[in-house]
Recover the amino acids of this structure.
């Protein structure tokens, strides 16, 4: 049984950490149920401003669903919990799974979710109701912990020695299976993400304003909400699953700015993985795993200062050969180290119980 926060197919953390492995699980004879806390109706309003009636009803349906899951537990040998069984309250469900039903429990997370963090539209309520220290308790309950990077793993190992590094991966055969044409459109600097990370683009606005004085380019921001800043180069594109790859293929360069803070160290570099799988050089902040994913001056650029950002973005826009050289080396890194195909056995081994 997969216990998830969000409906299937909607959240990148679910799609690229475990949902894309479902065909392989079925091929190997596994039967499973996916039980999200939020249904599609609740998910469509949960990050919007206001809409408290819809949010409240959605949460009530989620708790009702979790209660029903308790009656279904006997049918399943393994319980896989992504992030948390419920977004508020103590980890009762996880405790019952582990201590009462004594089920084999895998706990998976890909962010520093033990740190206080909330969306802007739900901030005060989330901070009041959410118990961020649930993570340490769930780590203790779990039989195995799956984490997206070593920073998260080091935290989990304080409470449980059985930690597996399971990187977020890209399906380079069936999904990200083509590369961009760098010559068929106006030069495009691109960013993709969600309401929770669009704030990091604010750090680059002064740099982008300076670049607008020297270069003709577009800044494509693919997100569920528009950014708050204004730039003449800005083109907002609302995220759409069906157009996801086509929209990304318009990028010449993909950017991933981060602030050097503890929360950001827990990020798993997913934006860079997506860009590079499509032959798009990634320009990233030197925070967390970014410098492990991006090999500086080989398949992308790692920046420490605003001056770095301006220098490398300028170089990529003004030097087509440099752009081509970096773009030609991106995909091989992802295929070898961060693809579904390269990580498949590692992921499936999560479900192997110790003898």
């Amino acid at each position: 049984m997969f216990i998830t926060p969000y409906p299937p197919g909607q959240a990148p953390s679910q799609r690229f950490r475990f949902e894309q492995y479902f065909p392989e699980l079925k091929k190997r004879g596994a039967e499973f149920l996916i039980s999200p806390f939020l249904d599609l109706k609740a998910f469509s309003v949960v990050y919007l401003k206001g809409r408290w009636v819809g949010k409240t009803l959605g949460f009530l349906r989620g708790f009702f669903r979790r209660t029903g899951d308790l009656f279904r537990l006997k049918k399943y040998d393994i319980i896989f919990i992504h992030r948390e069984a419920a977004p508020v309250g103590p980890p009762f469900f996880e405790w019952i799974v582990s201590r009462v039903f004594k089920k084999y429990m895998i706990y998976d997370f890909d962010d520093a979710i033990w740190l206080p963090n909330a969306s802007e539209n739900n901030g005060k309520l989330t901070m009041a109701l959410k118990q961020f220290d649930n993570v340490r308790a769930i780590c203790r309950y779990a039989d195995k912990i799956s984490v997206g990077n070593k920073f998260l793993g080091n935290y989990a190992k304080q409470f449980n020695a059985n930690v597996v590094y399971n990187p977020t991966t890209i399906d380079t055969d069936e999904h990200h299976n083509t590369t961009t044409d760098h010559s068929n459109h106006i030069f495009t600097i691109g960013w993709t993400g969600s309401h929770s990370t669009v704030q990091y683009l604010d750090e680059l606005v002064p740099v982008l304003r300076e670049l607008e004085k020297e270069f003709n380019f577009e800044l494509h921001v693919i997100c569920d909400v528009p950014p708050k800043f204004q730039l003449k180069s800005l083109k907002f594109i609302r995220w759409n699953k069906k157009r996801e790859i086509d929209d990304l293929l318009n990028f010449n360069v993909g950017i991933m700015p981060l602030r050097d803070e503890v929360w950001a160290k827990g990020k798993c570099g997913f934006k860079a993985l997506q860009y590079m799988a499509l032959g798009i050089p990634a320009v990233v902040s030197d925070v967390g795993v970014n410098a492990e994913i991006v090999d500086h001056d080989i398949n992308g650029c790692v920046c420490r200062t605003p001056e770095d950002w301006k220098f490398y973005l300028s170089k990529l826009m003004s030097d087509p050969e440099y752009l081509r050289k970096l773009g030609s080396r991106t995909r091989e890194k992802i295929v070898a180290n961060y693809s579904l195909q390269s990580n498949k056995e590692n992921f499936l081994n999560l479900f192997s119980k110790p003898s």
The first helix runs from residue 12 to 17.
